[in-house]
Amino acid sequence: MRRAWRLRRQSDFERLKAHGKRWRHELIMLSALPNGLPYNRYAFIANKRLGNAVARNRTRRRLREAMRRFALKQGHDIALIARANLAQQPYNMIVQALEELLRRAELHSEQSEGDP
Hints:
Oligomer: single chain
Strand content: 25-35%
Largest sheet: 4 strands, mixed
Subunit structure: Consists of a catalytic RNA component (M1 or rnpB) and a protein subunit.
Number of helices: 3
Catalytic activity: Endonucleolytic cleavage of RNA, removing 5'-extranucleotides from tRNA precursor
Enzyme class: hydrolase
GO biological process, one term: tRNA 5'-leader removal
Structural class: alpha+beta
Family: Belongs to the RnpA family.
Order of helices and strands: HEEEHEEHE
């Protein structure tokens, strides 16, 4: 993922927390806020409750890969927060959870990259 597409500054996270909307699923929490840019910026968050560094990094990689499948509306800051039991779930459950959250947040475009 390009560096410009990542949420990195503390001020961005604070703005997202203060003014963004949140949607919850049992596996993932999504927070989003329009950013006024022509592209989306992402944060993939896995805290220590998920396990050691290997488990947290694997969880973030799986979330990033699952997000690639979807064509999204542009111009938002999006944070995906892994919840405690995400690490043990199969990949297709992660994709289903993300699809549900993106539809509820109205960020999901009907056409996705994985569709024929």
